[in-house]
Task: inverse folding
């Protein structure tokens, strides 16, 4: 036990040192501090093909003011009194103003070091429009900029960009406003050969599976499958937690191993999560030419809420041309912590009872 925790601790250190920072990390960290909640933004590293590794980092920002019962059909106060709504809106305005100051200050700073940028703001009668289009690094000597229909700028040859196209609009009451948009960062890294290859799963699995063979970890095989005739849409809320369709069909077949760590071994589970995350990130750094998608900070997000029964994809390696892939998912329930290592063909749909099923095939279930 001591030896495996030492190995895991080493990988944890590697993970902390190797995390890829983006220009938006500082923004989202400061927003997290304002809200006093852990940062929960979406950050990915992807090779979809064509010899390009893409880094994506984004999150939704916005403002929303509650209506009172006097607003009629716009009322979304949830039974709060008018005085309570007004106090909540005053408090939220302070928070929204602080968030947008952080966003503005940071994006203004990025504009100073960019190759080209565009910024427009309008604040009229309570309605806000804020547009930032920032080309941090271009792929050619001359920056090409195209104005979009919404007024923002598109930089088709850019290697790194940050963008925000934010607007609020009046709600039906004509008094309160609401608006949510995405603040995003994109970076393209072109590989030397400009070629991508299928993911080789065996070298990767040889790195993570030994960690999951520890005697404190229970495991079982599982199968999730749905045929082309199974009505996924009609059963989505009833039978499935979430899913992803590939192509024009919901048909798919997934087999794998579920690894389980009991709730009382929280520290060990966190170390395993972090170690697998570290190994995965390091492996994509060593083999950027292979087709994959890796999502940052999944262990942290899963461990934030261990009372819910949820499972999230951390890694997907494309192992076959016909929508065949190896996936790693991390999950948690009140009973404990889970790592799912699977091979998926075509579409993947995760059953609601993923944590206690041996199989789910066209709605037919076999339990542990």
Result:
């Amino acid at each position: 036990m001591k030896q495996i925790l030492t190995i895991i601790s080493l990988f944890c250190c590697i993970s902390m040192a190797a995390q890829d920072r983006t220009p938006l990390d500082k923004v989202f960290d400061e927003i997290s501090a304002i809200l006093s909640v852990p940062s929960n933004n979406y950050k990915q590293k992807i090779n979809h093909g064509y010899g390009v590794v893409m880094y994506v980092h984004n999150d939704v920002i916005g403002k929303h003011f509650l209506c009172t019962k006097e607003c009629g059909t716009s009322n979304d106060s949830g039974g709060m009194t008018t005085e309570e709504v007004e106090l909540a809106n005053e408090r939220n305005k302070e928070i929204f103003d602080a968030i947008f100051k952080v966003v503005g200050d940071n994006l203004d700073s990025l504009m100073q070091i960019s190759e080209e940028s565009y910024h427009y703001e309008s604040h009229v009668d309570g309605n806000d429009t804020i547009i930032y289009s920032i080309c941090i690094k271009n792929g050619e000597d001359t920056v090409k900029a195209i104005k979009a229909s919404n007024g923002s700028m598109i930089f088709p040859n850019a290697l790194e960009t940050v963008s925000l196209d934010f607007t609020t609009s009046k709600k039906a009451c004509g008094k309160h406003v609401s608006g949510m948009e995405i603040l995003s960062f994109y970076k393209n890294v072109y590989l030397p050969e400009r070629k991508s290859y299928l993911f080789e799963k065996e070298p990767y699995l040889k790195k993570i599976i030994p960690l999951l063979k520890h005697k404190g970890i229970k495991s079982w095989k599982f199968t999730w499958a749905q045929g082309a005739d199974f009505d996924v849409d009609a059963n989505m809320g009833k039978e499935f937690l979430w899913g992803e369709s590939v192509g024009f069909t919901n048909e798919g077949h997934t087999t794998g191993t579920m690894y389980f760590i009991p709730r009382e071994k929280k520290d060990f589970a966190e170390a395993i999560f972090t170690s697998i995350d570290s190994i995965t990130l390091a492996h994509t750094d060593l083999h950027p030419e292979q087709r994959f998608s890796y999502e940052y900070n999944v262990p942290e997000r899963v461990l934030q809420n261990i009372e819910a029964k949820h499972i999230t994809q951390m890694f997907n390696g494309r192992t076959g041309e016909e929508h065949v892939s190896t996936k790693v998912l991390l999950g948690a329930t009140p009973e404990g912590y889970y790592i799912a290592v699977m091979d998926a063909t075509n579409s993947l749909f995760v059953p609601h009872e993923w944590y206690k099923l041996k199989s789910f095939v066209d709605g037919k279930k076999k339990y542990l």
Q: What stands out?
A: DSSP finds seven helices and 19 strands in the chain.
